[in-house]
Each structure stands twice: as C-alpha cells, then as structure tokens.
Design brief:
The complex is a heterotrimer. Chain A is α+β, with helices and mostly antiparallel strands. Chain A is built from twelve helices and 14 strands. In chain A, the strands form four sheets. A five-stranded antiparallel beta sheet of chain A has the order 4-5-10-6-7. In chain A, strands 11-12-13-14 form a four-stranded antiparallel beta sheet. In chain A, strands 1-3-2 form a three-stranded parallel beta sheet, covered by helices on one side. In chain A, strand 4 and strand 5 form a beta hairpin. In chain A, helix 10 runs antiparallel to helix 11 and helix 11 packs antiparallel against helix 12. Chain B is α+β, with helices and mostly antiparallel strands. In chain B, the strands form seven sheets. An eight-stranded mixed beta sheet of chain B has the order 3-5-1-12-9-10-11-22, sandwiched between helices. Chain B has a five-stranded mixed beta sheet with strand order 7-15-14-13-8. In chain B, helix 10 links the parallel strand 14 and strand 15. The longest helix of chain B has 28 residues. The two termini of chain B are 52 Å apart. Chain C is of the alpha+beta class. Chain C has two domains: 75 residues, Beta-grasp domain (Ubiquitin-like (UB roll), Roll), CATH 3.10.20.30; 67 residues, Orthogonal Bundle (DNA polymerase, domain 1), CATH 1.10.150. The longest helix of chain C is centred in the C-terminal third of the chain and has 14 residues. Chain C has five helices and five strands. Classes of the chains: A alpha+beta, B alpha+beta, C alpha+beta.
Chain lengths: 286, 808, 157
Amino acid sequence: MIRFDYLEPATLSEAFSLLEQHGDNARVIAGGTSLIIWMRQRLLMPKVVIGLGRIPEFDTITFDRQEGLRIGAGARHRDIELSPAVKQHYPLLHETFRKVAQPRIRNMGTIGGNLAGGDPLTDPGASLIALDAGLTLASSNATRTVSVEDFFVDYYQTALEPGELLTEIRVPPPQRPGWSHIKFTPRSIEDFATVGVAMTLRGKAGSCEDVRLALNSVASTIVRAKRAEAVLRGQRLSDDLLRKAGEIAATEVDPMDDNRGSADYKRDLVKVLVRRAAEQAIQRLS
Amino acid sequence: MSEFIGSRTRSKEGPRHVTGRGLYTDDFILPGMLQAMILRSPHAHAKILSVDPAQALANPNVIAVITPDDINQSTKPFKPGRYAAGLKRPIDEYAGAVDKVRYVGEPLGAVAARDRGSAEDALELISVEYEPIRPVVDVREAIKPSSATLFEELGSNLAWHGSLQYGDIDGAFKSADRVVKENLKIHRYSSTPLEPFVVIASYDAASKRLTVWVTAQVPEVIYDGLREALGLQDVRVIIPDVGGGFGQKIHLIRKYVVMVALLSMKSGRPVKWVEDRSEHMMAGGHACAQEFEAEAAVKNDGTVLGLRFKEYDDVGGSISTLTIHFTNKLNNLSNTYRTPSIAMEGYAVVTNKCPVIPNRGIGKPGMCYIWERMMDRVAQDLNMSPIDVRRKNLIQPSEMPYRTISGNVYDSGDYPGLLSTLLEKIDYDKLREEQKREREKGRLIGIGIVVGVEPGGRNAARDMAIFPEMKEPPGSGGVNGATIKLEKNGTIALHLGSPNCGQAHETTTAQVAADILGTTPDQISTSIPFDSDLSPWGVAAANSGNNFHLYDIGAIHGAAKKLREKVVKLASHLLNADAAELTIENGVVQVPGSATKKVTFAELGRVAYNNQHLIPDDMEAGLQATYYYTFPHAKPNIVPGPDRLVRAQFTFSAGAHAAIIEVDKATGKVEVLRYLIVGDNGTVINPDVVNGQVYGSAAHGIAVALGEGFIYSPEGQPLTVTYLDYGKCSTAETPKVEVIHRPSPSPFTSLGQKAAGEGAAIPSPAAIASAVEDALTPLGVKITDLPLTPEVVWRLANHNPDSVRRSY
Amino acid sequence: MKKTIRVTVNGRLYEEDVEPRILLSHFLRETIGLTGTHVGCVVGECGACSVLLDDKLIKSCLHFAVQADGCSVTTIEGLAKDGQLSVIQEAFVKHYALQCGYCTPGMVMASHALLRDHPQPTEDEIRKALGGNLCMCTGYVQIVEAVKDAAKGSTHV
C-alpha cells in the first residue's frame, strides 16, 4: 500500500477547503471499499486521503411525500436497503441495494462513493436513472444539480469538477408503480453484473403510459435506453412489443469483451433481460 | 472394540478454529523478523538483461536484496525429480529465473525490509531491463517451428513425448464392430486455497542450521529442495496449521522457500514472506489444460474392447512438472471397466503461462472425463442407454480383488451396486419421464450419470512405468510413521508423520488410537505442527495423493497396537495376571470381574517413567511406540518391470454420480437441480469428515465444469488474478451435494478404510458435461470442451457459429 | 505521518500510533496481536477478514485502521466467553462446518451477524447472507447445516 496522509474534516466546508488546498493530490474516502482496492493496485496514488466519515448529517435518509427521497452521499448501501421509507415507497431501490455485492460491502460502501467512482459495472446507477434521480454536486462556492443519466461521462469519469463533492441524491416522488430489476450474475452474487437492467413503468388499460429503462455493465457509462423506451411509450403492451424493445435496447449498448462474456453475448443478454424485465414490471402493475 | 471408529466423534480441530486460535504460518513472529516481497516478471517471455538493486538498497529499512545473479551464484538448481523424468537432457531449474523469464509472475528476485511497506516501496525501485520475446500461449502454436522456444536446450516447445500400451490394442481395433471417436478438452483451473503461500526462514550461520516454517503439503519436497539448492545438511521444516492445500502447496512453493532462506542467510535475520492473492493466481500453480483425441473400439453389444487416446498437455513455463498429468492417468487408467487393452500417448508442451502443479486429482479427472464422455458417445452411437453401456463393461464385485491390464489391483468395489443404488435414489425411470414431459413445455432438463474410481495411497515407483530411462526407483511404495506415547499422567500423545491442511487428522487418528488402546478420544491429543526434527516421517509423509487413509491411519494403527502390547505387558506384571485375560476400557486395564485387579493409564505412566523397580527386567522403560507403515499387499508390480505393469496406487474408492440440471437457453445459465453421489470409501472412520471431503471435492468439480478457470490474453497476460475474475463460487451458487455411503471395505488396509480426499473431484466434471449434453439433446448439441460457462452454453444452444477464441 | 487512534477491540480500549496506510485487518493481526482475523485475498472478495465494526459486519481488509478511530470492533476472539463457545461456534464444531479453518473466523462472524439480525433464516437467506465468505474446502453443506442448527430454538447467539 502506498504511503499517504490522512485527514478528517469535521464539516463539509472544511472538506471543501482541504480539497481546494490539495487539488489533484487528494482523494476522498467515505466507505473506502473501492478506493482502497485502487490504491492497493496503484491505479490511484493520492498523497492525501480525506475521510468524510465525521461530517454530520452526511448519511441521512429522509422521505417526504412532496419532495420525495433525499439520501446523503455518505449513506451506506445497507442503510438504503434497510430504510423503511425506501422499502415502502421505492421497492426498486430496495431490491437493487439488496443485491449490491453482499452485506459486508453494503455495510461499508456509500452511495456517494459508488456513484462518484463512475464505474459502469455498478448497480445503483441504473435504478436511480429509472427513478429520475438527480445529484447535488457542491463546492465551496457553488451548488448544482445533475441528473444521474448525465452524471456518467466515461469509464471511471463523472461530471464532478475539481473541488466538487457529491453531497446528496434526490429521488422525486414515485411516478411509475411497475418496476423490475435484473442483475445477471451467472457466477458469484458478489460479482459485478454481466448485464444489469432497471425499469419503471406506468400503464393503463393494457398500454404503457410512461417508462424508464436503464442498463449497467453494457457500455462505458450507465446507459438510459431512450429508443427502447420510445418503443414502449404510448403503445399497447404485447409480447411482440416487448421483444422489439429488447432488440432496440441491444442497439443502444456497447459492451466490452471481458471475463464475464463477449460483447455479442452481452448484447444478446440485453435483448432477453430487457424483455424479462418488462414482463416483470407489467406484472407488478396489477 | 469399535466404539469410535465409524462414529461422529467431536472435532478436535474445531474449537481452536472457531475461536480464531488456529496457528497458521503467518501467525508466527520471530524477533527481528524482516518482511519480504518477491520481484516478479511482468512479461510472459523475455531475456533478463540486467537487474540493478542499488536504488532499493539505498533505503536504510531495506536489509537484503537478491537478484538472478545471487540465485545463480549462491544456489544450485533443483535436481529433476520424478515429475520431470524423461527429459532428454536435464535442464537446470533454479529457485528463481536466472537468464530468462517464461511466464508473467515468474519470480526472479526478492527484497527483505524491516516492514512490509518498505519492502513494497523497495520492489518498485529495483531496476530490471528485459528483452521481450514473442510469447506462446496456445499448445498447437507452441509446437510450430516458427514459435519462439522457451528452453533453447530443448530445441522445441514439445518438451516430452511418450507412450504406453497394455493389452493387444491393435487387435482390439481390428476386431471391433465400430470405432467411436471424440476430441475433448479440459481447461486450466485450480483449487485456489484460501490461505496463500507463507514462508518464514531463519538461518543460524554459526551452527549452519536452517529452520523454516512453511505452508507445505509434502515435507520431503521442502527438505530436499533446501538441501539441494543451498547445500545445507541441517534443515528443519515446521508446518503449522495450513489453510488448504489441494496440491497447490507441494511443488512451486519450494522456489519461494529457497529464496526466502537466501534472504535470511544474506541478512542474518529471520525473514517472512506472505504471498498476495494476485501472486498466487498468476504464479502459484495451475492444474493442466489437457486436450484429448480419444477413440474406442466397440462391439455392437456395447462391449469396449480397447481405448486409445492422445493427450496434449499445456504445462506452462517450467519443465519440472512436465508429465504429472499424464503419468497420473495410470492411477485410474481403466476407471471402473474391464477393457482389456488401453493405449496412451502423451505430449507435454511448454507455454508462457504459469507452470502446472498436482492439483486435486491431477490428471485423473481428465482420465475419468475421457472414459465417461466416451461411454456416452458409445451409447449414442449404438442407440443404447448410457446406463446399459456402462453396465456392460463394469468390473463385477465377484472379480475383486481385480488386476487391471496396467497392473493396478482394485482391492474391493461393487460398481454395479453403486450404479443401481444411485438410479434407485433418483428414481431414474420416473425422472426420464418427467424430462420428456418438461421438454414438451420447452424446458431443457438434463441427467448425467457417471462412475469413477478414486485411487489412494501413493507408490513412489509408479513413474518408472512411463520412463524406461529411469533405471533406479526414485523411491518405491510408501513409508510413513506415527508415534504414540502414554504420558506420565495417563493421557495419550500422538505425533503424526504427515502435515495436514484441514482433513481432521487429529480427530480421526484419535478415534483409531482410542479404539485400539481402550481409551477415549478426549484423552488423546495430537502434536502439531509437523516438525521434521520430531515427526516420524518418510516418503509418504504427504498431505496429498490420498495418502492419509493408508499410510497415516496404518501407522497410527500399528503404533497403537504396539503400545497396547506394552501397556498390557506392564499391567500384567503389576497385576500379576495373565496378559491374555486383561481388558482395557476407558483407560483402565483390568482383569474382568475383579474389583481390585485393575490399574489406570496414569498409574502405569507413573511406573513406566518413574519407578524402575516396578518395571519388569525384560521390558524397556517408558510407554511409547513408533511404527512405520508400508502397505503389506504391495506386490506384485510395486516396481514396474519391462512389461510396465505397475501398482500406480494401492486402494480404490469409487463413486457413482448423478447430476440433474436445467439449461436456460436464452442466457446459457446452467442450474444444478440436484447432485447425488453414491460413494464407496471403504470403512468410514468419521462420517462427517468423509462427507466433508466429498461435498467439497464435488462442489469444486461442479464449479470447474460450469465456469471457473484461468484465462490468459494472447500475449500471455493472466486475466484472472482475483477470485471474482477467476469465477469462484460462493454459497449462493454452489449446489447442495447429497452423499449416500455404500462401502465395500478394503481387504488390504488396517481397518478396511479407503481414500476420500481427492474423491468426488474426479468424476464430477464429467457428470456435469454429461448432464448438459443430455439437456441439449433436442438441439443436437455435443459437449466436448470444458468449461461450460453461460456464454459457451448459450452459443451451443443457439448454434451461434462465431466463437470467441479464448486461451486458457 | 502516523496518527494516534483509539479503538475498542473486544471490549478493551487500545491507543496506538499507526501509519494511515495500515489496513484494519493488519492492525488487528499485527498491532493488536489478534491473529484470528485472516487475510485471504486482501481485496474484499473472500470474507476471511470479516469483523464487526460498531456492530456492523464489514471486511476489515477494505478499511484503513485510521477509519476505525473511535469505533468498537468485535473479532472472532470476542465471541466465546472464557473458553465457552457461543451457540454458533458450537454449531460449527458439532457439524464439522470447517476443514482447514482458514475461512472459519469470517464465516462464524458472518453467521453470527446473520442470526443476530434474522434469528430464523431460510436456507436461501443463509446462502445469500454467507455469499461473501468463500470456502475452498467444504462445499458449504455443513456450514449451512450449522447455521440452521444454531437458529433452531436459540434466543440469541
């Protein structure tokens, strides 16, 4: 492990000034589950590590019927998984967070760390996109909001600017009662998904009123499959339509060959799993 | 007498492990101990031009560095052991790479520093210049003259070629009604023990004595390796609790022991090295990828007259384990069948990948894979049921002990009985009907039924059958010992001849000793760790090759009997009774029926160690016995003659496996619905212990068949250096294995016991392959290659002609 | 630069100067001297290093010791009282839920945490909860049996 200095700011503004002061030499750590591995492998070699564990209210989860869900970036996956508000109002998130790695990681890893890492293989991003979530990015002199789908820019690259911290995730009140989440991991449940699918759906009298579809592990970013959504939106739901949506979704991804499978295989899985996800989401409507 | 043998005696190892008090090599600290790190090659194939440690040594925390020059000058190459016999000319293999590196991760130097962080930093500062050479990762490419050779002395990457045949193989093929052929493949994998390699070396220069603590399975390899490489006479090898071996901790570890010992000699301090997981995955050793071209000479009634196969072994970047996967096939060459002629031809090809090592089963899973895939093929070709074809060829229980055509003697076994019981337990006929019904609904359910022998007990002379060049046996049969002592206070202490890595040696030997001595297991303790100074060990001191059941149990059995004789002799003297009428129960020796004529073990101890005047004149003082066991039925063919007949191993467990699976055609995912084994491990000393071995070995074989494995890029870069990349399965993916015992005790062993350690790892890959093929029958798919990852199954099931070229 | 941290381990407070780069697993093993927590992969995949941090099950190899300042850690050595095994520990011994013992401390800690939060888990729940603890020896069958047995009729492990 490389040598570094460890600093623990007591407030968010102290964290901002440390970030400004140390610039590229610093990395923030919340849970640390990803950062420690990258540091061990010498992929990242910060001279200064800024621990966010002491910042008050950084990990709170609140729900309000008007505003929806507000999750502090320091909230652990496990806290989100177990939150009664999440379980009751956002079953898609409950299901997703139940599947992130396994309990040990969920106890330590934070949603902020997960999203800020920009890793397209991770699970929460797709579900948050399917729920129209937005992220609050703050620095010492400004605050802005970015949608989750715009947050992922490339492999391990996000919209975060130097000196900015992801401080909050906001999920609007639930709009679409149908939902499904599929994490295809043929080997170990601990592993990243070979293909991950998140969908939310609102239907009426056998037609789709609105839909969101997002996919992870199939491109350099977490992808919102807008063209596949357009296939479904406003249409009568049928087996053929679902199959078509799957095929269109497969054209919106650009998977990589890796240990989990070849690009061809993953593209084919997208066809199959999007269709299955849609079937499950429709079932949940009734 | 059998109160404890066969019972679920409480685990002796359990209490310390569940409270975190196991003592593994990394738990030991010596005063002044330094931390080491190994310098490894980032190239798959390269000349080493120069190594400059000057910058690393500039750090005052860095105490010693060794480079290829140090290894060349201060150590001697290892003598080619029986694994490398048959090389046309001996090739020196040193502990580390000296002028060339031949696989990513190959060690070429090391650093010892006062703390791990300094050692890591120092490693980065050693400046190494390489001249890369084009690597070869594919066996067929490697043998082409255009490929760069790994060992110039060999002139080719085909490092060894040999063959062996038994019976009239040409006659068999001439008189066959038909010939059934198939090409098969098994990939690189390993059991990846959870504890990595750890070595501590401490050299006392004034006494010229080296002590090592090491995670090793075979003390002889370490002991001899250190003496050969470092020219030392006085070597002590201590092996504490080992966190899993499976054959990984036998061979390559000797390189690291020598390097760490050299660091200790150079620095004058004890040195510890702890392997990183990624180091183990890239350089700790792999099971060999094997390709087979097999053909069977068959009669129309299903009788197999002969089996002929060619084998191509991808042995990686070392010549020291060239032929082990081929030679080990002699151990289960006939499997459970009476086929009267078998011919085997092997090609060992070196490639720029991790060297191969004797991972659980070593070559035997490959042999069973050949047999059981061929039996399925024969059945398909003849339109017979796979059960009937097997039944036609099985050795019958009435023929036991059975001499196979290669000279093995199967001690006992009821293979038809195992198969019948298996079919009954899964309700085979009903299952087939259910399968038909479900097929009509579009479900792809498959049933795979296989049988396999599981040999046990090593014969050190076996390899002479393959290598006519070997004039002298490197050893023969097996020898291992045990010491048992009745302590002054009446408790019993055991010293075993072998190390262990978790097979409950302490518990099972205590059960045996308790029954023979007339005491209880809780009065018995086993001395750990293995210590080459103190443990009564011989060539069979190995926690591998299914040796324990034969040599260690045999030794404890012998030692306990010897001790019992002494106990009874002393007691008869003290009680003034006839030795023949004495009984022992709960540590009390007595004349049955008498209230007064009894003496406890503690009382005997006090006499034997304290009270000379009470000891009979013709009896040695003390109450201790050592016994070195050899297998008493090793003849004939313990050392092969010109006819090449050989007892490859000595006892033969067996199992019939049923794999019931379902394939999801759209994703290729295979789910194991049920996995049942009907096993014969002979007399079972502790059912929980034996079951644990069967569950574990079966689970691994299934996981191997379904996708775990090592992958290399075309440039020889290892792509699977973490558990998740490699594809290791957790509780959630591992199917629950069921085991039923149907033993045929061995007439040759002390208690009728047979092996259990490698066990179910041998037939299980074949069972899964058979089941997946059966599931895909409606699609006309044939399964020949492992692993069956979801993507592979998806391609086969959807007839996708593109195949991703992967190098394993 | 070293930092002084105060960590309570198995009920006892320790004050130590540590380099920030020291992982919690190595801190427990080498600085505190409790070697029951094992390191199998050091990247958080195998679970051999599982401990409780402020009562939450975590992988100590994915945690710097400095992040544990002010926290309370329970290791495998903290479960038994005066040599008396806890219910889950006894179940592991009784069911032979171990072979080489290397995964055992992490497996016991994970089972302990599971039963504490879900006293009556189904087999499926057990298998999912232990999915982060790899074992190379046992095939998991006897481990699952041990957890089921410990769950049966126990009020608390």
